UniProtKB/TrEMBL annotation:
Keywords: Hydrolase, Metal-binding, Signal. The keyword Translocase does not apply. Residues 1-21 form the signal peptide. This is M20/M25/M40 family metallo-hydrolase. InterPro entries: Bact_exopeptidase_dim_dom (IPR036264), Peptidase_M20 (IPR002933), Peptidase_M20_dimer (IPR011650), Peptidase_M20A (IPR050072). Residues 218-317 form the Peptidase M20 dimerisation domain.
């Protein structure tokens, strides 16, 4: 349970964003207004409201299927069947478990991906039964990201029912491995070298629709384990102590990391989880830690990584230098997370369209931000991407008290629909 809580705190830190407001070019506002006033689009807006009750029912169904990272298969099968029933032209599950549904375009010369992730941060044994109190739904994962999955189904239904076809192909993806140590597994496979060409990427994985993520905060995570023979605290005294080596490494790293992060593009570090040892009267045979480092700059991320790895070696050498008997300690360094960083400039058409659509529906000025989402991979490859909000109201993300209130939730769907039609060239 302690490890779960620590990993939970790591996952929660994904929610950190740096926010700025940007201007929308008038031409994009005009284009959105023209599109939204088309009769078929207005009919689609009305249909979204008509099926709203079923969209909520789909969200509840998906929420009540446990799906921690690496164990999304059961939910994936249900999600795939829902997309088939919604009228997708074809549905398949790829080699790593991503569910992909095709809405074929008129020309199919480009592919636009609309993504919602299947996994949650909660262990398989977590009670994910949805409970309703008043108008509010409560359950772990109800909003993040089961709301997004239900939106994908509703969007497919809307396109099919209203016979709306874009020029380009649309892929609705339920992806695996977005959370925590999932390390964007699904996205890394989707964007792999030699894979299908993706021309633009839209992730539905945020809160209010006026918040748009156009930058990725990259992260590196390591599990470092110092190892020795272990022994009695008195009888084996003088052998190497892995805890000492780990403490030495941390005390070497923190001052250097502190100095490094005081200037330049924001870069962070956290020694987040510690473990090892068997009893108070035993020298441990291993001591381990999980460490998280983040930055919007790939160069800065590599810089703090180098300081970290240097400090590990220093910690090991310092403890080995005072060993009186037995073998030297060793260290295993495992990279357990590598999320790339990147940025799509605010002047790009996808960002401008996203802001213009949100502004049209809410009347609010959009807020651009950087965060850690499935869009990170696309950002790092120079592929246009944004992460947009789910709409409605939600809170308690990544906690057992997570909740969702369907207050104007339809706006989240209308927002996604307009952006999809603009990118798909309707």
């Amino acid at each position: 349970m302690k490890i779960f809580k620590s990993l939970l705190s790591l996952a929660l830190s994904f929610l950190f964003v740096q926010v700025s407001a940007q201007e929308i070019k008038p031409s994009y506002k005009t284009a959105v207004e023209k599109l939204a006033k088309k009769k078929e689009v207005q009919d689609a807006f009305a249909y979204i409201l008509e099926i709203d009750e079923q969209t909520i029912a789909d969200m509840i169904t998906l929420t009540e299927i446990p799906a921690p990272s690496f164990e999304e298969a059961a939910k994936g099968l249900v999600f795939a069947e829902m997309l088939r029933n919604a009228g997708a032209d074809s549905v398949w599950i790829d080699e790593v478990g991503n569910v992909i549904a095709l809405r074929k375009g008129k020309k199919s010369d480009k592919t636009i991906v609309i993504d919602a992730h299947l996994d949650t941060v909660f262990p398989m044994e977590t009670d994910v039964t949805v409970k309703q109190r008043g108008d509010t739904l409560y359950a772990p994962g109800i909003a993040d990201a089961n709301r997004s999955l239900a939106m994908s189904i509703a969007l497919m239904k809307t396109l099919v029912h209203q016979n709306i076809k874009t020029i380009h192909d649309l892929w609705f993806v339920g992806s695996v491995g977005e959370e925590g140590l999932g390390d964007l597994k699904g996205m890394k496979h989707l964007f792999r070298e030699g894979g299908h060409t993706i021309d633009a990427f839209i992730a539905i994985d945020g809160g209010g629709i006026d918040g748009i993520v156009n930058g990725g905060i990259g992260s590196l995570r390591y599990r470092v384990t110092f190892k020795g023979s272990g022994g009695h605290s008195y009888g084996a005294f003088g052998i190497g102590n892995p805890h000492n080596a780990l403490a030495n490494a941390i005390s070497s790293f923190v001052p250097k990391a502190d100095l490094f992060t005081k200037e330049g593009i924001r870069t962070t570090y956290s020694v987040s989880v510690l473990g090892g040892g068997t009893s108070v009267n035993s020298i441990p045979y291993e001591s381990w830690m999980l460490v998280d480092m983040r930055s919007e700059s790939q160069e800065r991320l590599q810089g703090i990584k180098n300081l970290f790895l240097e400090s590990i070696e220093e910690g090991l050498e310092k403890e080995n230098s005072i060993i009186r008997s037995g073998d030297s300690l060793t260290v295993d360094i495992e990279n357990v997370g590598d999320r790339p960083s990147g940025l799509l400039e605010s002047e790009h058409s996808l960002v401008q369209q996203s802001m213009a659509v949100a502004n049209y529906l809410t009347g609010k000025q959009s807020r651009l931000s950087s965060s850690s989402t499935n869009s990170n991979v696309a950002f790092s490859l120079g592929i246009p991407a944004v992460t947009i909000g789910r709409g409605g109201q939600a809170g308690g993300g990544h906690s057992l008290d997570e909740w969702f209130l369907n207050k104007d939730g339809y706006l989240g769907l209308q927002n996604a629909l307009l952006l999809i039609l603009m990118q798909g060239e309707y």
